[in-house]
DNA sequence: ATGATTATATTCACCCATAAACATTTGCAA
DNA sequence: TTGCAAATGTTTATGGGTGAATATAATCAT
């Protein structure tokens, strides 16, 4: 179960150190791809397989399904952690998520997420402002603390 | 069942002693995360699992659900009580809850809460002022003393 | 009360994760 | 081949995390 928030940075070559705590569970190789809300998703090889299967099972006569498959698979990249604990984030994904210098890794249950610090902060502010509303909405999903 | 109020302090590195009474029930490892109303929540590993399951079961196509999962999981930190009874409160959580020097642990049924002393005092004052009103409101939730 | 025991607070020193700069290799194109 | 850029590897410095030691306060039993 991934959890926590880790502030990191990407170097001039687009590499970044994977937080040691997350690395333990991610392993030496894992997969990153486009995520939702402007971040990247990262899955351990095992979790990625599950995700792949879900995509495989989609009915491809459905255009929305085709689009979804393209979205996640075209963005996917197999990452190898080097001896210094770093990965290279492909240029297209960096651009997609607006990653330049300061980035944030967060654990999110079965996956990790990579955010540009700016977007992450924004996302949090927004949440703080609508907190009561969000929590109330959650009730309708059957969620209670 | 957690209960009681304990005044403590955090050191320069962000560590604090976990009240001995709470430690008995929390165990040697437990989880803290963002809470509501500006405090932190702390769960025993067992209670945390229950909470995790709730989060896992949320539908991730729902944006509100994603936001909520991010809120609690990005804030979560597995704490290990060291030989001296201390835990490290991660910097992001300290900032979130405004923990600097004087803090208050309180027991709150299935979880503990960690407050900055300032916020806790304020919270209590507010309650004292609106006591009658609050208790009356509780009736609509089916609560009677 | 008094001393013994346990809990809490504070300080210091060390080590490892990270950041950042620099060096080397590889692949490609002129 | 030669030069360049991208990718990969190495090195060093710093600061945050971690453990140990000591000081102070609170609790308990005699």
Q: If strands are numbered along the chain, what order do they take across the biggest sheet of chain A?
A: 1-7-8-4-3-5
| Mean pLDDT figure of chain A | 93
What is the helix tally of chain A?
5
Rounded radius of gyration of chain A (Å): 16 Å
Query: In angstroms, what separates the terminal alpha carbons of chain A?
Result: 19 Å
Q: Strand percentage of chain A, roughly?
A: 25-35%
What's the CATH architecture name of chain A?
3-Layer(aba) Sandwich
**Domains of chain A, number:** 1
CATH superfamily of chain A: Transcriptional regulator MraZ domain
CATH fold name of chain A: Chemotaxis protein chec
Q: What structural class do you assign from the helix and strand content of chain A?
A: alpha+beta
Oligomer: homodimer
Structure, described:
With 145 residues, chain A is an alpha+beta fold. Chain A has a single domain (5-117), classed as Transcriptional regulator MraZ domain (Chemotaxis protein chec). Chain A contains five helices and eight strands. In chain A, the strands form two sheets. A six-stranded antiparallel sheet of chain A has the order 1-7-8-4-3-5, with helices on both faces. The longest helix of chain A has 24 residues, at 117-140. Chain A is globular and about 45 Å long. The two termini of chain A are 19 Å apart. The interface between A and B is medium-sized, with 24 and 29 residues. The structure holds a DNA duplex (30 and 30 nucleotides).
